[in-house]
């Protein structure tokens, strides 16, 4: 079925649905709120972009993210799922992964039934917090009471559930974060993603912080929250398989695993990225522009570059370092054509001596301290190019 290795030929596809019921104050994704009249046009455009694949492209995993894909009505959702089914058929149904992102308030029994009928077997729910005042500070639309209803609906028909949680929300204390993790674990999710809140430039929350209207969490407390997540989730049987991601055994997100391996993937929709045959492309981030371009027969791509082999190798190091598995020397050689130590031998020795990396000869990976400083470490390795 596949003629090229997974770093050249995609086994996985990402589709972006930008629509949300409200634009949360911290969100910097490609999202659109209050533009529901664009949904059908967007689906027209998405179908056209999928048709530009030329022929159906079989994949092993699919991830539909957003935005809030389940914000679509059941009828619109069916249309989306039918287009995916036509252009991105699943190889060996049963051993596939088909993930859809969701929010507690956007799910209903009809939509969940539809997702299950089209082979969706993993729903990632944007829970974020179990504290009403923190949900309000983040401008989330759902109430805490909607979380159990959503989980119950999904559980009846879909085998795997993931929770997204945010820590270091405005004014959040360590005790509140501990309670959030406990509340999440009480639902026995298969997977948990924990993200420290970032104040992305230009977002309403960033503006509030700039004018001193937000009580931010200091760095030490944010670190304490991250470390608590590592300990609490490990104690509950979760594997910390990527900086921000924890999974029960066998429940890693396979789509994201491919992404963190720096392997190839298709990407369709506004703001979507794709990486096929060494070419990295990015679609426009504005929904109206995306729709206009695609419906006019123009490409939605606004950036396209083929990285040179050395650049590609460094990008592979930076991405794979985020994983608990780290960078495996033999696999790295196959994937990039470079010896890891030729490129960053001195850097690895320095960071290993500083206790930030573990090097067992077959692979290089972050230590616990390294995980806490991951962003800086990745920046540093990219600077050593
Ligand atoms: S629901 Fe998610 S994607 Fe939509 S605005 Fe809020 S954070 Fe962004």
From TrEMBL:
Alphabetically ordered keywords of this record: 4Fe-4S, Chaperone, Cytoplasm, Heme, Iron, Iron-sulfur, Metal-binding, S-adenosyl-L-methionine
Domain of life of the native organism: Bacteria
Major subcellular location class: cytoplasm
One protein family per Pfam: HemN_C
Domain Radical SAM core: 2-239
GO molecular function: 4 iron, 4 sulfur cluster binding; coproporphyrinogen oxidase activity; metal ion binding
Subcellular location: Cytoplasm
Cited SUPFAM superfamilies: Radical SAM enzymes
Gene Ontology terms: cellular component: cytoplasm
Presence of keyword Cytoplasm: yes
Gene Ontology BP, a term: porphyrin-containing compound biosynthetic process
NCBIfam families on file: hemN_rel (TIGR00539)
Family named by the database record: Belongs to the anaerobic coproporphyrinogen-III oxidase family. HemW subfamily.
Purpose: Probably acts as a heme chaperone, transferring heme to an unknown acceptor. Binds one molecule of heme per monomer, possibly covalently. Binds 1 [4Fe-4S] cluster. The cluster is coordinated with 3 cysteines and an exchangeable S-adenosyl-L-methionine.
Name of the protein in its database record: Heme chaperone HemW
Organism: Limnoglobus roseus
